[in-house]
Amino acid sequence: MTHGHLWDRLAEAKSRLEPVQPRYRVIYENPDDLDAPACIMSPAPEWLAAAMAGNILPPVDTYLRDRDVVDGEPKEHPYAQPIGPLSEEEAMEYLVLKDCPRSVTEYTGNRTILKIVPVEMIPTDRTHRNAWRLAQ
Known about the structure:
By secondary structure, this protein is α+β, with helices and mostly antiparallel strands. It is 32% helix and 10% strand. The N and C termini lie far apart (45 Å).
């Protein structure tokens, strides 16, 4: 595979890789809005397959540097040299760094605001979803 644009690499991977259903979810609270419910994040099965196959995703630090690039200016991550394969656990950590708000990843308080949990730990009944909080 060539190391062209990220979208091309992802499209090529989607056409040849079987999707991988994630066994984990990321649950986090926004420390800037204590009244907001906990957020649940799950990778797309196609993205997880690409992460676990390797030679598709750029290093996560390129996304972090691109957060500070002014809109309209070229970003680094689409053209960065791809990294090798990740385990599912490493892919979840990558996702946290890439997609969680900075207020979550840079939180220095003493309460738990982020957890990576097995999918079975998340209730299937979402009736009281807006009241969910992370237990300590």
